[in-house]
Each structure stands twice: as structure tokens, then as C-alpha cells.
Batch of 3 targets.
Target 1
Amino acid sequence: MKKILFCVLLLVIAGACKRDFLNTKPLDKVQSTDTWKDGALAEAFVTGIYSGLGQGGFDEQMLAALSDEAVFTHPGRGINIVNEGTLNPSNIGWVNVNYRWGKDGSNTDMYAMIRQANLALENLRTATFDDKALNDRLQGESHFMRAFYYHQLIRYYGGVPIVDRSYGLKEDYTVTRNTWEECVNFVLKECDSAILLLKGKTLSAGRATDLAAMALKARVLLYAASDLHDMPTAKSRSALISGYAHPEFLGYLSGDRIARWTAAKSAAKALMDAAPLRGYKLNLTAPASAADGKKNYVSLAMGGGSKGPDVDKTAESEILFGRYWTINKDEYAGMYVGLANGPNGYHNWAGNTPVQELVDDYEMMDGTKFSWSNPAQKAQPYVNRDPRFYASILYDGADWKPRDKISGNVDPANQIQTGKYDQGGGVFLPGLDTRSSSIENWNGSWTGYYVRKFTDPDPDLVDNTTRQTIPWPFFRYTEVVMNYIEACIELGEDNEARTWLNKIRYRAGMPAITETGAALKQRYRNERRVELAYEDQRYHDCRRWMIAPATLGRKLVYIDVVGTLKAGATPSSPYKHDETRYNYTYTPLEVNSHEDRKWDDKMYYRPIAQDEMNTNLKLIQNPGYN
């Protein structure tokens, strides 16, 4: 009997244990209701909203290859906007809303990120953890991130559906597009909420701040005031837009453009006044030396992330919102910018290579425009140029990193080689960084250039094998100053515009400009082009200024470099750039076989993906894609 009772007791205990086991919480997951009871868990959830920023600089620099800054070296990967994208009816909607490619080739879904922000804001308002300061800060970050993702959507698509709450199961998910004006107002309201909640709070690098929200507000207002989004102006310049039945999705149908430019100016100036010391070396009253101008610009691009010599790490102050990297995390693309874009003669991939159009727009040191019609400039096109050129572009003969750390002792001079060089007897040696390189020949530049900007110049950092930690500036102080300058020009305040434009030029070692009116506007646009090169600006600027047919749609120009031996000279072995031995010729060539660009006005806006159109029948497509 005792044995029977003992067995029954064991069975009861075992059954209870099994029930308790079934009732235990998983150790690798947190219930949603618990998240908002604990400040650390709530912060972790909000941190997850930042994941939509993707790989930062690597992703954003892909956009350079859709503009007249660069060309993507490797066609056939769905990145060539003209040959494989918007002009191909069977491929409408192929590209992501902000041109970000994930590690698995998938795209960041802006609305998935917006949903995360919506969930955070809904739950933080009723959260029970006892830390009001943290709660306010997390709400501020969530407002900013929601505004950031919506700003990405509207600058590609125009007006989009505003979804400011999370949806549950079995709800009607179909929604209509909001107007451009409604979307702009929503983003501005989000920015104001973020500014209020984040003001005075110190956050770790990479998290949203009140200054980041102010910078976003200034950018959105600048876009809102621009030609593309003023429908009377846009219709006068594009028959396609003029014939579109829903212009309210694309811009303002009427209203006071002066008021819009004034708002853009005020928003930019508010940040400049709030944080004047964040601007790096914008207090000069005369041009820096050429050497210092180059150092200043390299330092800006490094954002405090380089350990290399001759880099001023205090330039990190310029970054108002950036993507930072942790060396022991699997953040592949963003930390391998040098590998992705660097010269193939260093076993790199030459991803987004500068085109001649960009190179030509860097001025001479005296502030005059470079011209191939000038015999002296044609003979030595890389001499006496804007210091930002040398900090941004790798060209034939440019000094670069020790090649022997990755490619062997084949180039003691450590110079970029993108030409072909006379060896005598009619034999020409292809440079080590060409598509006929003896090191690697499948991934060389087509254009004759490589990008240097955002690649760590530390000679001990081998781009092919070592990760860099250069932060990506989604917003930097100088962009805000540029926005202020543009608004001043549009308002006829030329003196104020020149004052700030010259501050930027002085830092780069360039002389002051003196133009007024339309000439000042053109000078400003070129200055913005070179100062913000490869920073996710040019593609959007050309569209909002409505100059895309002459810029984004123009044919690409590459450079052909040939070094011919001088009479009586012997070839250098191994080769190095040597003007005592070689006569160099530089021939710009229009090359359309790789990518034959042309412009169609429908490309002012991205197409809504057909899957979205099929799922949500309330959506109306952008002009030109039906």
C-alpha cells in the first residue's frame, strides 16, 4: 500500500512539474507586455528601430552611381537605374525606396520600420517602468526615426500613405496616399516632437538627438521649397507632370514660395545658432593652405574614425546623426567601404567609380573652372586643383597606401595606375589598377578613377582584409549650412549667402567667390556638388532642381591615360608615374557600351511596386508608370 501511495505521489509531482514547465517563459524571447514594464527592455526595442538604417555609407554610396557622380562597375546586378530599372516596363519597382540592399540582397522596408516606431510610441505612452526621463527620450527617438523613414519615402515617391498607428489582425489594411503637403506637415510635426523630447539630453553616438531632428526638419523644408514640389513650376518644365491627374501627391498646388523658402532658411539657421561649435573650422577669415584644405576635408570624411596620421579627429563634431560601427559585430558592408570601392590593384572591388563629369567640376586652385580647352590644364589635368579633389578622388599617379601589404612588391611608389605605359618597341604595359591588371582584371574601374572619400587612409589598414570604422554622416553640419545658403539665395540675400559659402571654401583652401544673382546660384550648386560628393545628395538635388535631363541623363565620360616614353628615355621598372621619362596624354571619352544613360521625366519619382498596387487597390501610381 505504501508503495502504491508513493508512486501516486511521484506521478502527481511529475505532472505538476510538467505543467510548470509548460508555463515557463522562453529564455530567448520577451513578452511584449513585459517590454514596457522595464526601461532596459523598452530601450532595446527602440534601438531595433535603427536597424532600418542598414549599412550606412556602403548603401548610401550606391546612390552616387545613379547620379553624375559615379558609375557602378559591375552591371547585371539590378543596380543600373537606366538599363535595368525605371525604363524597363517589366522591372518597375525593382529598386528599394531608399536604394538600400540588405545582407541577403533584400531591401529595407520603410513601412516595417515605421510600424516599429508606431508600436514604440503607442506603448511608451502607457509604459509602467519608473523613469520618466528615459521614457521621454525613447519617445523622442521614436518620433525622429518615424520622421526619418517618412522623409526617405516622400523624397522618392512624393505623397505616401501616412500610417501613424499599428494595425492588428483582420483589419482593413488598404489606405490612400496622402498629399505631398500633408506628408511634409506630418514629418515636420514629428521633428518638432523629437526636438522637444530630446532637447538637452546626451545620447551615445549614433542615436537621435534634438540637433538631428533639427537637421532633418531643415532638409525637408528645403525640399518642400524646391522646384520639383512647386506644381506651377514643375508643370511648366515637364509635360508628364503637367498631364498627371493627381499633382497633389507631387507637390504644392499653390501657395507662397517665399514663405516656404523663409521657413527653410529659419529652420537651418535655428540649428546653426543652437550649435555653432559643431561646424568644423567654419570660423576662418581667409583660405587655408592647400595642404591644410586637403587635411580638413579628409578629416571631415573620416568623422573621427581613422587612426591614420594627419587626420584631425575633432572633425567628428560635424556629424549630427551618423551610422557608427562596432569592430566585433558582423556589419560587413559599411565597414568594408574601402574593399567595395577601392582599386582592384589592391585586390578591391571598384564598386562606385567617379566619372569625368564629377572630376571636371572641381575648380582650379584660383577658383576658375577647369577646362579641357586650356592646353596647360589638358596636359596636366590633376595639377593645381581644389584640395577637395585630392581628398576625394584617386587618379592616375595619385599617392595611395602601401601596395605590398596586399599585392606584393610590385609598386614601390604606391601610386594609382589607371593608364597604359610605353615599354618601348610598341609594347604598352597596362596599369595595376586597370581592367587589364596583372593583379586582378575582372573588377577594375571603367572610368579611370577610384573614390578616396570615406576610405580610411591609415597605411596600416588593408582594405581587402581589415575593417574600417569610419562613421557615415546621414546629417552633417555643413549640409545644414548649405541649406541655409540656398534659401538665402532664393530669397535674394546674396551677401549672407556668400558669407557662409566662403566659410566653407576657406576651410577647403579655396578663394572667396563674388558672384550675385543667377551666377551665384550656379556657383553654389557646384560648391554643393563637390563639398557633398558621395553623400546621398546629388541624385536628390538634380531632381528637386529639375536639372536631371542635363545631369542624371547625360552620357558618361571616362578618361584614357597613356604614358609615352620620351626620346632617349628608358621605361621605369617597376612602373611609376615619372614625367622625366614619359609624356602623358589624357583623353576624355564618351563611353556608352557599359551604361548608355538617358532621362525620362517619370524618373523624377519612383514607381510604386506592382505588388503594392495589387495588394492595395486604393493606391494611385506615380506619373509615367501605368
Target 2
Amino acid sequence: MSRKAHTLVAIFVAIFNNMAVSQETNADLASFVSPFIGTKNMGHTFPGATVPFGMIQLSPETGNQPMYINGQYNKKVYSYCSGYQYNDSTIFGFSHTHFSGTGHSDLGDFLIMPTTGRLMLEPGEASNPGSGYFSRFSHDQETATPGYYQVKLSTYGINAELTATERVGFHQYTFSKSDSAHILLDLMANIYNYDDKNVWTFVRVENDTLITGYRQTSGWARTRTLYFAMVFSKPVKSYGHKKYDQSPYKGFWRKFNESENFPEMAGRNIRAYFNFMTEDDEKIKIKFALSAVSTEGALKNLQAEIPGWDFDQIKGLVREKWNHQLRKIEVKTHTLEQKESFYTALYHTMLSPVVFEDVDGNYRGLDNNVHPSDGFTNYTIFSLWDTYRALHPLFNLIEPSRNADMINSMLAHYDQSVHHMLPVWSHYANENWCMIGYHAVSVLADAAAKGNTSFDLQHALEAAKNTSQVAYFDGIGDYMIFGFVPEDKSASSVSKTLEYAYDDWCIAQLASFSGDSLTASIYLKRSANYNHVFNHKSRFMQPRLSDGSWKSPFDPLQTHDQGFIEGNAWNYGLYVPQQVDSLVSMMGGKAAFSAHLDSLFTMHLDDSYFEQTEDITRDGIIGNYVHGNEPGHHIVYLYNWTNEPWKTQSRVRMIMETMYGAAPDGLCGNDDAGQMSAWYIFSALGFYPVCPGSPEYALGSPMVEEAIVHLENGKDMHIIVRNQSLKNIYVKKVLLNGIELKAPTINHFDLIKGGELEFLMTSKPVLK
């Protein structure tokens, strides 16, 4: 960029940020979103086309890594949790379903790839040009904005454009003149792919433009079926498929040549192709609808959401949907990069959970039966070990009705569960049991605590209690017997004990809201079980054995075999959000606790302590504090329980400045279905939900200069930050509607009344 251009940008930023915050000046907030922002080496967020919370998440696959090579786990596959890596220069096609930066993966359904020339059905190897149907591409010829993706497939000279509604992907491919143009439908492609992941595939060529079918897969979701309906904008010239599975029994189908122009395709592993004649600059469009219920459901979704063929119209409608969502919070920031980081984070918080029902309200349930959603919209993708911490609390603030739908989806999951459990980590009518705890109870309690009770509280309490008593789940039986999870009975025992104790507290809150004082008393007592894994001699949470002894030897820095998962005693041991005052007292009082936090942020953690943990890299670590992973997200706010809350303010600002950015590697760890970004949104506004299930937020140091949060109740919360700058990171005073707050907390019910929250900033710590 020229020096003159830099000057013009600087002038534009100065003018823009001096404008008042209003819907008029921020009419196109989507322009501040960068879908490319992700991580350097881990599961990237996908840059493709989707609407807020849409089931269709249509995005390029830039790699083709199998999950296993010669029976051994392939570590490279982890980089493709979301299908896209910014450092790649190849595209293998465009799939319709994705996760956003998760630590494990699945999906990548129904890959479409346009090609020309010799028909190739093998994907090929990225290192070997011409070995398969993949194409080269350059970021110079690539665009991604909310709801729209474009790239030039340089190998074929094809311009690919994608947009999407909730249930329908819309492709537009611009070809040159060719008598050998192809659209490939790779029904073998999956994310985290391995031999035999496909269970069965079935395709029907209904006529010369309509293709229907379904595919069953067994992966992270071990029993998953998706139906599709695909429509071309022009008739197919010819078509065919190749079947890659070898079945000794072919029945009487052997009388047909099934591979060419035969209107039924069935098998475990199939790649289909559709041939066309094209003129220069001719556009072939494809509408691709999904349903977890039936082909009929997919066809209904198709007709309801994209009845016509105007790609630009749908693209514009999708962009406006994003602007409507992003306008829920309007901000003025000191720099353009801060604005881009903020709105990209807000965008990330709206990628999941996703709508999981047809336009007629039918959905496939956990019991594999079809159910009507009665009075709610059904959602899926609940990465609850991550998202209960800040994502669902954010929904309770800016869109409680949607969060209530998600809660009713969780209660439907419970009703359909043969284990009588709420979801742990669920997607696409499956429970995958990933991670520890059962944190749907936190989502229920947080909603109830914040007045969002558009669900049956008694039903929620019943579901929470039953979930907490499933003895065969992850050490719960021993937890109920011993008051802690013994390490010789169940690994990650300290983490489980701490998480179960917090979940017990959440159940106690639900019981209180439901008027059940006996249950509240029982679970409040259980919520103190963290005491049983605290060693008063070492002042660390430590693993215990079933005989009551402490496991030995003990290394508080070690992640593995020391009672913790994705953390250690130094950081995960600080997880007692329900009773922080008690934790402070156990660790020697406010001064000692503050010193412990100081050491956490300043000590060195050697790579050997986390090199075997895929979710953690040096990029997300400050000392021994791991911001790149969720269990520590509350820690920086714990100084508020000492006499030095200014340290929270300093470190929150430092984390926002160093762990987030507007570059393609702008996240320091997996976004984990929006949790990493939700932390940023709360912190940028100046407060954070340390303990979901409580109406109290801990105050921090806001990044914004000004913000308006448009609340669902019709009121506006106006945040004003006086004397904001890169140096003025400390809070001198906080006023709520002109009245000074005396404690470093603010109540949810005070916020949703609307009005003005004012921060007065200074460059020096304000000492108590």
C-alpha cells in the first residue's frame, strides 16, 4: 500500500470513529468482519457462506488429510478440523457442513467440485499437481464476507461463488467455453475421514436437473444420516458415478451398467459426476438443500428458502441477516483493527449452535425418530464444556429467546436419551460424549438466574438431577460415594471433581428458582466437594486415590497423569467459580492468592508440559496461564476477589491486545464453537460472567470507546468509556446511570433495564 493510501485509511478511521454510534453510521457492520481470522496451526474457523446459526455452512476444503495412515493417527488432520487452512494453496471442493474451530471434528458433508477437461474422480495429492480433481488458488483471487465466499479456481479458470440460507447452499460457477465441463459430487469426502466412515450412500437422478439422496456416516457422531436435494440451473448432458467399495454380492443389479447414465446410485463409497457444455462466462448454478429427516424435507427446505435463481438477491438478503445480527451490539473503537476484531468475534459467536429442523418444524431426535418441534426451534452442535462459560451467557444478554430455544432443544435431547441425561457434547442427533462434566445444567441455571425462563423449570430441574445421578458416566458414581472422583478409578479426577462441584451448585440454583429447598440444600452441600481435592499443605488441588491418600508423585505443572485434562494444578486448580471467596481463603487469603495469580502469569511453562496436548500451543500461553483453552478463561478476573482488581484490568487489556487480532492468525487457540470469541466480546464491553448461574458479572477494563447493546426487551444499554486509550487501561470509577458502583461487579438485571454504564479510565492503577 502506498504512503498516500495509508494516510487516507488513517483519515477514514479517524473520521469514522469520531462519529456517534448509530445504526446509520454502522449500517454495514458486516464489512468489519474477517471470516479468515482463525489460528496458525489448529482447527481454523471456516471462511465460507452461512447465515447466523445456519445448518448450511458452505466452505472450501483446502486439504485432504486422512485421520489414520497405516492404522496410526495422522497428526496433520487436526489442522483441518474446520476444513480450511489459510496457508494452503489448494482447494479440493466445497462442503456443506462444518464446525467452527473445534478441538475434534466431523461433518464436511456433500463435497461439490467444478472442473473442466479430462474427467478425474480422485481428489489427488496437493503436492502432486494434476494427480486429481483439486485446483490451485491464490488469496489474491479470494473473497470472504459474512454469507458469501468467492475464489478463482486457477487450475480450471472457474470462478466459484457461494452463499447460503439456513438449510440451502447456493453455488454459482462461471465457466469458460468448454465441451467437457463437470460438476463432481464426492460422497466419500468427510472431515476427519477414514476407511469405512461412510455407512451407506444413495442417489437418485430424478430428472435432468434434480438429484436427491442421502448419506449415512459413522464418526464423532456414530449414527448420522443427512438427506439432500440438488438442483442444477441447466439440464445435465450426461452423468455417471464410480463405486469404490467391493461387494461380492451384486444381486440382479448386475444386469445393468450402473456406472453411466443409470438413475440410481447406491453403495458405501461413491463419487458422482455431471457433465455439461458451457459457453464463455456461462454460469452454472446449484441449489443444495439438506434435511436430517427426509428427501421430502430437503425439497420443502429448497422450495421455501430459495425458490428462484437470483444469486445476487440471496447474497444480499443473507448479508442483511448478518447486519441485523451484528447490530445487536454497535461499537466505536480507538482503531479500525479493534473494530474488525470485535465484529469478527461477534460473527464467530453466531456460527453455532445451528438450526436443526426442517421448515415444517420436523427434526430427527436423539432416539433416531422424527419429532415435531413444539413451541421452539430445535438446535444442534452443543460444545458445552466450552460454551457454557461465556457463549450461552452472551446469548442470555443479547438474544435470550434464541437461548431459550437452545435450552428446549437440550430438554428434548434429555427426553429422548436412553441414559436420561442432558447433552454433554452433541451434534446431528447424536451424543459424542466429548470432554467432562454435564454443563447443560449451567446453561439452564444461567438462563433462570437471569430471568430467561421460557422453558419448564420443573422439567429442567428433573433433567439436571437425573443427569447428575447417572453413576456409570465418567466417575459420577464414585463422586457420589467419596465426595470426589478418585484418580485410581477415573482419569482427570481433579478436573472432574471441580466441574461436578460447579454443576452441583448450578443444580442448587435451579432448585432454588423452582422452590425446591430440600434439593437446593443437598446440591449446595455437594457443590463444596472441591474441598476434598485441595491439599492444604501444598495449597494445590491434587488427585486423591480411593483410599483417601494423595496420589504420588505430584507435579503441579504437569498436564498428564496428574488428575487434570487440558490443564494443570496451577491453572485448572483455580476452577471454583461458585465460591471464589472460599478458594481465596483456602489459598492463604487475598495477598497470597494475588501472589499466586501473579506467579501464574509470569512463570515459565516448558513446552514439555503441553506438547502432547493438541488444543494448547505456545501462541495461547502467558506464563502458565493458557488463554488458548477454556478452563482458564475466568482466571484473569479473579483479582477482583483480592485487594488488587487493577491487575484484572491490566491483564484483560493485555490479553485482548496480544491474543486477538484482525490477521488470519488472529486467534491464539481454537475458537471452540464461539467460546474464545465470546470471552472477547464480554471483555471488550468491560465485564465477564465468571460464574454462569449467577446474575453477577465481574468488571474488567473495556476495549471499546463506546457501545450500544440493543436488548431484546426493547431497551438499550449505552456503554461510555471516558479517557480511553492504549495507555489508560485502568478503571478509576464506574457509574451506572450516574451512581458509582462500589464493588467490581455489576448485576445482569441492572444492565437489562437499559441506561448508561460509564467507565472513567486512567493510566495509573487505582489502589484500594
Target 3
Amino acid sequence: MYRILLADDEQIVIDSLTFIIERNFPGQVEFLSARSGGDAIELCQANKVDIAFMDVSMPGLNGIEAIKAIKASSPAVIFIVLTAFDRFEYAQQAVNLGVYEYLSKPVNRNKIVEVARSAMSQVDVLRRKQLSEIQIREKLDSVVNIVESDFIYSLIFPSEKAGDIASYLDFFGIKDPSFYFMTIEVSDLIEASRQDVYLTARDIVLSAAHCIVGPFMRNRIVVFVPFVPGPTPESDVEAIKGAVRLIHSRMGAKLSLRVKIGLSRVESDLTRSLSAYNDSLKALISTDGDSGVVHCADCEESLSSSDSYPADLERRLLDRAIAGDVQSVHGIFAGLCQWIRARFPDDDGVLRYKLMDLLSIIRFQTREIQNQFGGFAVWKDTWRQVAAEQDLSSLERYVLSCVDECLTVVNEHKQSRMSPIIVRACAIIHESLAEDISLEEISRRVEISPFYFSKLFKEETGENFIDYLTMARMQKAKDLLREPSRSIKEISAASGYADPNYFSKLFKKVVGVTPTEFRESL
């Protein structure tokens, strides 16, 4: 459909043009008409006009003046000038304004049809160009989102490729290396509204700060915020907390959901990105319902001055366990053990009781999902092992290995409910753990686009591709470590890591101990 404006002070001319065009292009044209230059301008401002047939001599503003005014606000309109005055100056002005055609009255009917058809073809070209530009912008937006996600993952899951971070910083135009992490957690998130919640939260954060917003990781959003440090660390903390409280307030009002935000300290060394991220997580875990925003410095102060058991931390552990979130469970588990050992250094019975209590609850949760899991014999052996173990570090590792068995059952249950595409993708991943595999390669093999695969994988598994791959490789490494004949170097390569040193560091980050220590505990 083409919207055509017919501007002429003679109604008979408007009626004649309408008849000719409508007869030759039936059902393809919507007409607007104006009897003066001022009316033509108003119609173009109120409507998207594709083609305008414009008389030169009209009351008030003439056609040339009207074209000039319309061009200023609607440059895409194609103008065809009609005039009974064959004056050179009009033609020259029309050419200077980029008029598509200049016709002298009276005009042959065939000429009107020819010019209209040609102008419509030009409109089609412009529309295709605009559509192409829109599609390109959409693709660029999706690419930027992927790059932002990759950047966040590279910071919180560092690789041996240090040059990658510098490339990301250059891409985003970040010059100052100082930064802090903001980790946002949205409670009571409904899957159907997940995308809307994310977009709203992202808009609020981006409107308040120049930053890089990561994707939803379960119900969390990690934000990297470049920051220029002030005169003192204390002033930085207050400035950051003030700005983030505004973000928290806006999110609470817009989302009508409970939002918590944990903040890290300001770092100037990007190699400390993982440490900063962990600080924001610790702060997040310690947030309460009243403040909603906690800086890691406040977290450390409150923890050192309080002897009350961190019940919120325990609830978080159980919540992450039922979700199959291995990485979060390991981190929270280590934090709970550390708290108990620090408060009761001379009474290891407290740690034994609490670990057995937690394991009982997690196993009960797992049986709710898979009723064939566990049994009396398993419990008898577990309690015997817990009671007999004298080394508390070994005790913690043993209980954590029992928790890992539960998490494996939870994740296998989740996988059994996945779509065939993701089931196939997971099978390919586990078959290729020793290879240098990527999201793009897996998406190609399951024959869907990388962008859609990334989105579907996250929705189906609850984890992003990198998290899933890392945990699968760590599980394979733990299985291989049970074989005394294999060296750490061989296990590293078989798990997909060419650099044994990087493998050992990553293993300790995920599992809590080095590969050697894990093997010695078996």
C-alpha cells in the first residue's frame, strides 16, 4: 500500500489524479488531499506519506516552500511537481530540493501513470533498504548482547587467554580498568515473565550507570561497572551504595518482585575479577529483606560482629541444591563450613551434626524428585563414614561428594525432561569433553543458530553453555582422578584443558581443593 498526497488548489486536478492513479493501481493506494501548502505540511506531519504530487502555485505557502518544509521533517517523501508555470527558477529550486519529477500542466495521462509507477518502485527500494537496516540493527543488537554475555563470563570464569579481556574492553570503549561488580538477584521469578523482567531490570541499570549487563544466570544478573575511584575507599563505598540504592528502589517499584543486590569492592586489576565477583556474591547472600543492598565491606563487618547462625545462607544452599546449581552449592557449602569451624574451633561435633543435617535435607529433597534414590544401606554407610572421619577437611569433602551425588540425580532428572535438541547437544558435549568445543560448533551440529541455541540451552538446562561445559569437565576429571595410574597432566588433557596449571586452578575454584588433594582424599 502506498500513501499518496495530492496537493493542488484546484479540486478538479485532485479528482483527475485520483481517478487516473486509482484506475491503474487498484487497491494499492491510499489518498490524502490538500488545497494549500500549509495543509500539505500538516498532513505530512500527521501521516507517513510515500509520494506527493505538489502544485507550485497554491494559496499561502507555494509548492516549493511546502516541499522545503516537509523535507526537513520527512526526507523520505518522493515529490512530483506539477505546474502550469514553465519558469526556470521553479525548476532549478525543485532540482536543488531533490524533487523526483518536474511536470508541466497539462500532463498526459500515460505520463502520470508512468511517473507514479516509477515513484512506487522507488518507494519499494527505500522500504527494502529500511527493512534491511532494521534487520542489521537487530542482528547487531543480538551480537552486542552475546559479546556482553561473553565478557561477563570471561571475567567470572577466567581463561588462560588474557588478551581476550583487552579485546572486550576495546570493543566496549572502556579505558579505565577500575571496576566493581553488582550482582542482582530476583526472587519469586516466574518463567513466563523472565524475559520481561530481565529487559526491565537491564533498562533500569543502564539508565543509571555506564556498565556491561550480563544475562540471567538462573535468577541472577551480573553487572560489570567501570568506576573512577574517589579520594578514599570509604567515599567510594558510600557513592556506590547511594547509586545502587536508587537502582534497587526503581526495580522494586517496576518489577513488584523482591530484589537483592550484592556489591563488590572497587578493583583496579582485572585479574582480580573472579575475586570481586565472589565478593559481590558473599554480599548478596548476606542481604536482608530491609536493606536489599549490601556492600561486601558491610558484610565482613556484620559477620565479624554477629554470632547468630547464618540461616539465610543455609536456606540458599538448600534452594541451590534442589535447582542442581553445583557451583553455587560448592561456594555456599564452603562458607557454612568456614563459619562453623570459626565459631566452634574446639567442638568438631557441631560440624559433624550440621553436615549430616544438611545432607539429610538435601537427600530428602532429591528423593522427592527421584524416589528410587538412596536407601537405608546408603544412610548406614554415610553415618559410619561421618562418625569415623577424624580430619575435618576430609569430612567436608566426603559430605560434599555425597551432596554432589544428589545434584547429579537432580540434573539427570532435569535432562530427562529436555527437548530432543538439547538432549542431543548435551550428549555431544559429554562425548567431546577432551576436544576444543564451542557453542557455535555444538549449535552447528544440532542445526540451529548459535543465538537461539544459547537461549534454548539456558532455558532447558538452567545453566549457560560455559557453566555446563565446565561442570561436565570437572566431573570427568574427578572420575579420572580415581584412577591412580593417570597423571594430572593426562587428566587435564582428557578433560579438555591443554594447560595443567590452569586446569588445577579451575578445579580448585570449582571443587574447593586441588586435583592432588582431591585424589589424596579418596
